[in-house]
Amino acid sequence: MNPPQALPDPGRINFRLLHYFRVVAEEMNFTQAARRLNMSQPPLSKHIKDLEQRLGLTLCQRGREGFAVTDEGLLIYQETVNLLAATEAFRRGVDEVHQRMGGQLHVAIFDHTVSNPQAQIGRAIALFSERAPEVSLQMYVEPINTIERGVIDGQFQVGVIPMHRSAESLSYHSLFSERMFLYCGAQHELDEACAASSASSLACATATCILLP
């Protein structure tokens, strides 16, 4: 009985070589495996030989009798499939960590906007909580000047205000628009102006926007 050999250092095992061996074992043919890997056969044979030396095992039998995967090779093939699958799962997990949002988000909203149904504040909060459940959302209702100053100073990361001016240090993005009308009583001094002008001429449009630093 041959004495057991020491396990190879995991750092010496090349994932690329394991991938090559997996394809060879699945194709059961070096020529077809090389074609699948888009490489020539001699380098592929050299890579498999390199893997065998690193593992201290004979993975494939080549000769006049044809190609065959050894019993040890079959075991290594299954372990390779498991390892590569785990590696892919690890990669996806790392990607999710990079894409996941966390921390706190401070949002200040102008008081009239909170009660405006066009703003859909409740729906926006629900969607944000669904897509970024690990973010703590802090909402504030403040006057326009306080919101602008807070976003500039870093107290708020996002502000929602009616569009009334533009500051060079802020970025504005329109959310929705609404129309406001001027009404007066029949005996009011503006009644003649209302009668002389169309209703649309006494209407003004205002836009609500989101501002970012």
Question: Can you give a write-up of this model?
Answer:
- Helix content is 45%, strand content 22%.
- With 213 residues, it is of the alpha/beta class.
- It folds into 2 domains: 10-98, Arc Repressor Mutant, subunit A (Orthogonal Bundle), CATH 1.10.10; 103-212, D-Maltodextrin-Binding Protein, domain 2.
- Strands 4-3-5-7-6 form a 5-stranded mixed β-sheet. The protein has a two-stranded antiparallel ribbon with strand order 1-2.
- Strand 1 and strand 2 form a beta hairpin.
- Helix 1 (15-27) packs across helix 2 (30-36) and helix 1 packs across helix 3.
- The N and C termini lie far apart (73 Å).
- Mean pLDDT is 80; it is low at 198-203.
CATH class of the largest domain: Alpha Beta
Detail the poorly predicted runs: 198-203
Query: How many strands in all?
Result: 7
Q: Order of helices and strands, N to C?
A: HHHEEHEHHEHEEHE
At the fold tier of CATH, the topology name of the largest domain is: D-Maltodextrin-Binding Protein, domain 2
DSSP helix fraction: 40-55%
Mean residue pLDDT:
80
What spatial form do the alpha-carbon principal axes imply? rod-shaped
Cα-atom radius of gyration = 35 Å
Quote the distance from N terminus to C terminus: 73 Å
What spatial order of strands do you see in the largest sheet?
4-3-5-7-6
Architecture (CATH level 2) name of the largest domain: 3-Layer(aba) Sandwich
Percent of sequence in beta strands: 15-25%
* Tally of separate helices: 8
Largest sheet: 5 strands, mixed
Entry keywords:
two-stranded antiparallel ribbon; D-Maltodextrin-Binding Protein, domain 2; 213 residues; alpha/beta; 22% strand; 2 domains; 45% helix
